[in-house]
Design a protein that fits this description.
Blueprint (H helix, E strand, L loop, with lengths): L9 H13 L4 H13 L10 H8 L3 H14 L1 H5 L15 H12 L11 H10 L8 H10 L2
Helix pairs in contact: 1-2, 2-4, 7-8
Amino acid sequence: MKKYKVTLSLEERVRLEGMLKAGKASANKLMRARVLLKADVGRDGPGWGDARIVEALDVGICTVERIRQRFVEEGLEAALNRKQQEQPNRARVLDGRGEAQLIALACSAAPEGHTQWTLQLLANGLVELKVVDTISDETVRRVLKKTN
């Protein structure tokens, strides 16, 4: 006996079927919609079992179980969309203030003996100004590219 039974309302079913017909959503979202429609125990009688859904849609058993659980516990939106990270993997090296200092440094005159700023010179300059303890030239490149 399944712990999490998916019972879609008429509005939810129409929305999911509309998503699949339009095909405008991401592949993962469409796959989740298919899982929910197959697992629905409502209108068409008993829903498909997890093993049958896995075979038909070529997804993992844990994926089907997770989608069922998220639908029952959190609702349709949570089941369709990717779970947001509670905490990012890594803290940002430069916050907004640090980025502003980097841009100001990059717009200033190049240091003595150089005709222009290099990424490594900018990284070293941020360390000298005590904006950050350490920073890579790649991080400097990404920040400058983003603010170009």
